[in-house]
Design goal:
alpha+beta, four-stranded antiparallel β-sheet, three-stranded antiparallel β-sheet, 9 strands, about 25% strand, elongated
Length: about 180
Amino acid sequence: MSERAKVVTLIGLGVVLAAVVFYLYVGGTSITVGAGSSVSEAYRPIDVENPALHLDRIERLRKLEYKPTGRDIFSSQPPPEPKKAEVAPLLPPAGPHLPPEPPPLVVPIKYYGFSDDAVRKKRSGFFTNGEEVFIASEGDLLQGKYRVISITPAATEVEEVSTGRHAKITMDNQGGAPQGDSPHQ
């Protein structure tokens, strides 16, 4: 664009600006603010039923205390986490307690010997309860109450069938049986 064209365009814009200013301020027309309203319209106050002050509400607000939350209102950071109250260690419940452990199993049977059966590959034990003599292998029941778990030369382990408790019966050499009736004593 040439220098002369720029000057002509600038003069044209100045004339348009002067015409708009003259029309708005000197021409005497009113300025429209929005659709259907103008500055020259009469002022109408808002319709209020009771314009009196509510002094009771004002007094209630005056007595209200401000309780801060600890957050800085000028910061975008979230407020700090509230401190957790320390929890006291849990005490055991005061209700009923577990029953005490049952006493060790006492078996009224004496173990006084054993024998090995080479054919059946089983070991049998000799037991007595006073005058009665019992012969039982591993897995058999004694007096219908005790199951023989294992038989060794030194002791026999039995289990009470009703409770599942175990007991060990050691060899009793004074049980009244002679030493010669068992080859493995």
